[in-house]
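WARN  no MSA supplied for this record, continuing single-sequence
INFO  ligand: pyridoxal-5'-phosphate
INFO  echoing inputs
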Amino acid sequence: MIKSIYLDYNATVPILNEVKKTLLDCMDLGPINASSVHFYGREGKNILQIARSNIANLINTKSENIIFTSSATEAINLILGSFQNIVVSSIEHLAVLNSSKTDLLIPVDINGIVDLDYLEQLLKKISKDKKQILISVMWVNNETGVIQPIKDVINISKKYGCFVHCDAAQALGKIKIDFDELGADFLTISGHKIGAPSGIGALVYNNNFNLLPQILGGGQENGMRAGTENILGIIGFGEAARIISELPEITHSKVKFLRDYISNKIITLRPETVFLGDKVERVSNTILIALPNTPGDLALMKLDLANFSVSSGSACSSGKISKSHVVTAMGYDQLASNSIRISFPPNDFILETERLITIQELDRLAECWSNI
Ligand code: PLP
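INFO  complex generated
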């Protein structure tokens, strides 16, 4: 069977080979429930601690600041569910938009960057009346790859005494994260974006606010998230984090070469292609493109038939393509149903451990795009 060429790494990264090996070894460890008081329970606690400290190393914080959840989505719900007054950017992931239930949205400019002046004016207005305001802004947008001025967002928010959550699901493994230096109160991350299995995420916090647990039961995870821990998921997340944190640095030159190659080829063969968010600082692995008058579902189908697995900028869990709220927020309403995201591995290390993507394949992809 011909396998499709996978270029949808922002959706999920295949499980890293080293992570697979560790998981297989750990399956023989025995019946582990970290809450048990006997030998196997102690083993479990030890495993949790190792994973926690590997993740803490990757994002430079203390391991006790990390709460394991089933996903970044759950971690986001736990944070946002604990606040009454929430301001979010208009390009947040649906996990944030749908759990915040707020109409206080920070707009973005045509490049998909949050409007800092708007945030400041809004906080000036509302911070006198409202207490305990949470600002939630993502670090890297999942559709465009655009890097947000998160430090500025935090500085402005802190000036008005607000709490800050940063959704770092698309930043982890792509850019250096230093939680302690960042100054945010909460950060959320997801294992499957860096080569761990899906179904494991984490909330990182600095303990200045009492979160309202959403899942009640036993006192696991410091009483913040009940339920027997997903030990294999946690091992996988910890191992993927260890591998990345042991790299001398996270590099992208090879990923960027592929991204720029396909971009140039596409512009040459189909000059009317619109590139979204390509004029500003963004991660090296992502492009979001659209053809005027060509619906994304049609483009996606043609690319799929030609054996390329890419994504519509706006696919939701049902697989149905709706209008992208991100593209709409950037002011490209006409293109909001047309966008297609091509995403390469998050960094050079993962690119090299994966099946190599060849120039011939990228030529074929550009050719296929030009014929849509
Ligand atoms: N936030 C962003 C920016 C994402 O891209 C994703 C997943 O695509 C999530 C949150 C949700 O992560 P999870 O799949 O762990 O729930």
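The pocket of pyridoxal-5'-phosphate is lined by residues 71-73, 93, 95, 138, 142, 167, 169-170, 190, 201 (CB under 6 Å).
INFO  checksum written, moving to next record
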